[in-house]
């Protein structure tokens, strides 16, 4: 009876014609239509169109379709041009924009009574959100498991913990609250913890101190600890940072030996089964570990996080590290920003009364430093937010620029631009400036190419290459990676540094774009083609254990040139000198947003060169790349 309300009288809409229009205007794919038809048993009802919208949302990496966010007047965002393109097929009489279903309440009622929707069925409904079943399961599992882990009782001697915290974080009366100490106390006393913070806020330093404290607490039976990151580059960086932080702590050798230094990729930890998308470790064959630390957690998609967490034994603890403001994962989900999205710069997470009392006891000798409050967020007591950057001092333009962009503060942005910081350079996008950018790129790249010509070792060549990177916000057009790559290659050829006249050439830098589990080469891995003594070319890669690996070029999975790379692909990497190019205003679509530009800026360690129109920087800062999910709702953020 209810459902009848949502069927369209035949004279109102020619469904076939409408669907053809949606396919023709690339709003949906034929495969989306096939699935929607299957789930709705050939009925063109409201649910049919909602399934099309759901698949559109999933293709934009949303975990679900939030019914309240649908533009009910024009759900597929058809423009007048789109409609005229389809005027042969869609009758003029049909009003524009056409809405095939009424409003959120009607849609909800239709979904509630639909046979494809519900537990154990292909579609799920949760808190006004429509999901594909698989993604709803991942999200529900993770939110439950995070909560369970956070609530897991940890047996600990508070006095001993407090003494160790004071040893690693001596009380400094000049400082208000040492949030690194709080983060460490929290992670030491919890089965689950998220430590978020911008670049250089001390996430790795804090975790290294945490590991020293934990291993001191459990000397009788030291914890089995693993460090992972989503990409080889990020894992290599984590290893480097942990080694650096350990060195600065001057730990006794027996304690230092209990703190792992080598991080690995999540795929390596789980053990890829060649030619499948399955792993050796899973719920039935869990990992043998007590504590897992995941760095760059913002890059981990929902499916991979689900596989990782399922492979943890029931007693294991989990710590997620990352910058909540960076770009979300390439695939579906936005776990870190879902868990930390409520945290605002300049404020701190609100801990519950009991938790605040405990933290005051172990960190501040019982002084009433942290104020507790009633919280509806299940992970309130498991979240730490580090905000003070120790890498970027107050005279660093990179840090100031990152802060202004992240805070969407146009005044501060202007001040940064006017100030003239030595670690920042700004250029426009005029023809001469564009050409000068290419020349600068060629100057930088000439260093590693000259090293190849003088037969330097692969390690040195890779190190020189990775000092500089040109990052682009988009792929296509003159400001996109494809064109930039071609033009830089031409410049280098003009300087006789490369001879790009065949498919492979000495010095050619490549980035793998497809996982190859057999060769253990993964999306994002960077290689350089180098000749051996006989002149035979090999693609050389340096893995996260700093081992050089050689491959015959013909065996490589798909790859692309990488003189320029997209900001998306640069996540998890850092470069001494980063050049960033944003397209001009008429080409800066929805893709250029705050998270993207912030991620690009924060890849720079020593110098950032920004090539863009000032108004594009302002526009991107105002545009937020939100992803829809129900994770925060499941965790009851209220
Ligand atoms: N409390 C502190 N006081 C002084 N220096 C610190 C402190 N914490 C960290 N640092 C220094 O700041 C730098 C960055 O620290 P760390 O690598 O731990 O940050 P991070 O948040 O892990 O950085 P990223 O994730 O961006 O690599 C290091 O040189 C470290 O020694």
List keywords for this structure.
six-stranded parallel sheet; Rossmann fold; 638 residues; single chain; alpha/beta; binds adenosine-5'-triphosphate; 39% helix; 3 domains; five-stranded parallel sheet; Arc Repressor Mutant, subunit A; 24 helices; disordered N terminus
Write the layout of secondary structure elements.
Layout: H1 15-24, H2 30-39, H3 46-59, E1 65-66, H4 80-85, H5 104-112, E2 123-126, E3 129-132, H6 133-151, H7 158-168, H8 179-188, E4 192-197, H9 203-217, E5 225-229, H10 232-249, H11 253-256, E6 264-265, H12 266-270, E7 291-294, H13 302-310, E8 317-322, H14 335-340, H15 353-363, E9 383-386, H16 397-406, H17 410-419, E10 424-427, H18 431-453, H19 458-465, E11 468-472, H20 481-494, E12 509-512, E13 526-531, E14 537-542, E15 548-551, E16 559-561, E17 564-566, H21 567-570, E18 575-581, H22 594-601, E19 604-611, H23 614-622, H24 631-634
Parallel strand pairs: 4-8, 4-9, 5-6, 5-7, 7-8, 10-19, 11-17, 11-18, 18-19
Antiparallel strand pairs: 1-3, 2-3, 12-13, 12-16, 13-14, 14-15
Helix pairs in contact: 2-3, 6-13, 7-8, 7-9, 8-9, 9-10, 16-17, 16-22, 18-19, 18-20, 22-23
The structure holds adenosine-5'-triphosphate.
The site of adenosine-5'-triphosphate has 14 residues, from helix 9 and helix 10.
Keywords: ATP-binding, DNA damage, DNA repair, DNA-binding, Exonuclease, Helicase, Hydrolase, Isomerase, Nuclease, Nucleotide-binding
Protein name: RecBCD enzyme subunit RecD
Pfam families: AAA_19, RecD_N, UvrD_C_2
